Amino acid sequence: MENISIVKEPIKFSLVGISGIFINFIVLALCIYIFNFSEPISLAIGILFSISTNYYFNRIWTFQSQNPILNEYFKYVVSNAIGSIIQYFSALLFNNIFINSNFTTINILIIELDTIFIASLFGIFFGFISNFLFSKFIVFRKKSLIS
Fold first, then answer.
1. 146 CB neighbour count, 10 Å cutoff
2. Of residues 126 and 46, which shows the higher confidence score?
3. Can you say how many angstroms the Cα of residue 58 is from the centroid of all Cα atoms in its chain?
4. Where do the domains of the chain lie?
């Protein structure tokens, strides 16, 4: 039964993360195009929104946690700060690489995206690994029955 969990948890975590990408992009777009915030500020706000929704879905679905919510949420936010920093600076780095390569938009199928969105995907990928490991082994760790 434990072997199934080893496969299921990363898949569920990934699906929650994908929902977080959509939330991140929606918030990023709103901040940039509606509220006229700068790209770095908009990235940070998108990350914060996706962290909160990802915590909720990982708590109830991926790890079925019964731990106290406030303490667990605090640990989740703190532990994901490392992944978020990796995500943020990776996104800025890739966006600068795209801009220095004279790309301002990238066409994917019939969609034209500003490079910040593609760069954000790179950042999300690099932050994912750190976030899963912290979530699995620190935040949502099951309490041992043996004291």
1. 3
2. 46
3. 12
4. 2-139
